[in-house]
Structures are given as structure tokens and as C-alpha cells.
DNA sequence: TCAATCAAAGACTTTATTAATCTATAATAG
DNA sequence: CTATTATAGATTAATAAAGTCTTTGATTGA
């Protein structure tokens, strides 16, 4: 069990957008170069972030991506959910009883992690880290 | 990102062993039947649990598997780690700075989940759940 | 001792998921 | 219009998970 590389790219891209000038859209070309990934691939990842309403895109010359919300309103969890989806990490296909303790505990454990990630906002990274 | 099916099998097997008579080893045949999985495959999973010192095995007639520790000394996390390994969920291959906040937060979030799972022991399931 | 029973190990195959590419289409600024 | 940039979908490649098959080794008890 691992976070996908896509999530990694998404987090780094968001970090970069956070530390960039807020009103100048940044093209996928540049974002991809920095991370050593192909523009077309990063593009699909960013489209997910757009659909999750975390960033917005502009087509055409001088277009690109920029934050749609304030830094303090974007959490790690938002980004992760946008890429990985929101389904539970533990899936018991059978699911016979709502009182199943295994499932309950696994879900609660996950909730603990998500709670932490939800409280971590992009604003905490801004300035405190340089993107490379 | 999902827990593997192997983890699911491991948890269910442990639950079954917990609710079984502690001194009579149970063969993989029976354990596999209950879960609708092939004995040889389950066997490799159980071998991991043996190596993690959670259960012990006996070869030969009347052999099989049984708990090696007390119920209250086996946590969900023990089982999960035995199957999934202990590597971090988030891997940044670059890893340039020990001060990287992204990595720090991701690791800390995971720690929250693990802490919860470490406190959940098999003894909490015993009796409260029927295996099916 | 020997045959039946059971676990361990390793090589292998199949299936599923993730990662990535390629190509075509749509939007927009200048 | 045309250059630029995002979106979408189909497709391929790479990696990981799931599962099978076969052999070996240990143990029991007849
Ligand atoms: S016991 Fe719980 S986790 Fe297992 S199959 Fe039933 S509902 Fe799912
Ligand atoms: S910024 Fe942090 S997470 Fe990203 S590559 Fe560097 S060390 Fe890894």
C-alpha cells in the first residue's frame, strides 16, 4: 500500500502554485519540467485538481493554472482525495454486518489519519519551504 | 491506495484463531475454506505471520497454526505490518531535505493512523464477533 | 520404518493497477 | 487567423498484487 506517484506530483505542484504569484497562471510545461515528468501526464493530474475545485485553468496564450481557493482553505486531504479518491482503504467485499468490528476499526484508524491531513493547510507550507 | 487482499485474509484468519481453542492447531485447509481462498495462497500469508511471531506452526499430522502470543498482545498494526511491511506510505524518491514539510506531515499523518491501530488488540474482538 | 499429513519455499502465471505516451479536439489571447 | 495552452480518450508499457503449481522438509502415528 502506497500513495501513488500522481499524489506526489499533485502535492508538489500545489506547493509550487502556492509559492507563486497568485494571479499569473503557470503552464503545465513549466510545472512538469520542475518535477521531471511529462507535461501530458501531469496535465491529467492537474485536471483532477481542477475538477476538485482546488485550482482553475485558463486555455490559450498566457494560460495555465492557478489556485482557486485561499491557501488556508486547501488541505493536504483535499489534494489527496482529488487524486486517490475517497473510498475506504480497507475494503471487505462481503460487508455482511454493520456491526463488524474489523471494518469499524479500520475505518476509524483511517479517519484519524484523514483528520490530521485535513487540518494541514497549504498555508503552512508557504514560505517555509523552497520548491526545487 | 488500498490495503491488499492479503491483509484482509490475515486479519480474518487471526480473528478466527483468536476465537478458536488456543491449544489445538488449525490447518490451513480449514482456514482457507472459510474465506474462499486457495490453501496454498493463504499458506504464504500465514508464513508471514509466523515470521512476525504472531502465530506458530506445526508440521505433520494434527499440525497447523495457533496463536503464539496472548490476544491482548497482538495489535491490528502488528498484523498489518507483517503483511504490508513497514515502509512509509508516502515515498518521495528524492528526499533532499530532512526539513521537508511535505514529507514530515505525511509521515506524521500516517503515524496517527498507526497509533490507533497499535492500540487495537485482538482481545477486543474476541467474543464480540462471530466469524463467518 | 513407512505412509499419510501438514507447512515452507520457490518458480511461475495471470490479473489488476499505475504510469506514461500519443493524438485529436477545444478554448483563447493577440 | 494562428500560436498557445488545456482537455479528453485511446492506447501502451511497467509494476505490483493475486494466485497456481510443484518440490521439499518436518512430524505423527500405525
Ligand atoms: S467480518 Fe467484517 S471485514 Fe470481514 S467480511 Fe465480514 S463485514 Fe467484512
Ligand atoms: S520537497 Fe520533500 S517530498 Fe518533495 S522531493 Fe523534496 S524531500 Fe521529497
UniProtKB/TrEMBL annotation, chains A, B:
Q: Which Pfam families match?
A: Rrf2 (PF02082)
Q: From the UniProt record, which GO molecular function terms apply?
A: DNA-binding transcription factor activity
> What's an example GO cellular component term for this entry?
cytosol
Protein's name in the database: Rrf2 family transcriptional regulator
Q: Whose protein is this, by species?
A: Paenibacillus jilunlii
PANTHER family hit by this protein:
RRF2 FAMILY PROTEIN (PTHR33221:SF9), WINGED HELIX-TURN-HELIX TRANSCRIPTIONAL REGULATOR, RRF2 FAMILY (PTHR33221)
PROSITE patterns from the UniProt entry: HTH_RRF2_2 (PS51197)
| InterPro entries with a match to the protein in the record | Tscrpt_reg_Rrf2, WH-like_DNA-bd_sf, WH_DNA-bd_sf
Amino acid at each position: 500500500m502506497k500513495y501513488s506517484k500522481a499524489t506526489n506530483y499533485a502535492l508538489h505542484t500545489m506547493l509550487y502554485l502556492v509559492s507563486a504569484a497568485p494571479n499569473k497562471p503557470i503552464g503545465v510545461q513549466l510545472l512538469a519540467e520542475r518535477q521531471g515528468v511529462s507535461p501530458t501526464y501531469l496535465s491529467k493530474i492537474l485536471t483532477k485538481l481542477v475538477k476538485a475545485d482546488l485550482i482553475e485553468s485558463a486555455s490559450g496564450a498566457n494560460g495555465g493554472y492557478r489556485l482557486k481557493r485561499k491557501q488556508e482553505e486547501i488541505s493536504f486531504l483535499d489534494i489527496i482525495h482529488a487524486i486517490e479518491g475517497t473510498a475506504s482503504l480497507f475494503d471487505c467485499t462481503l460487508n455482511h454486518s454493520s456491526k463488524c468490528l474489523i471494518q469499524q476499526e479500520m475505518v476509524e484508524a483511517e479517519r484519524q489519519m484523514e483528520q490530521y491531513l485535513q487540518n494541514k493547510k497549504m498555508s503552512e507550507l508557504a514560505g517555509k519551504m523552497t520548491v526545487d
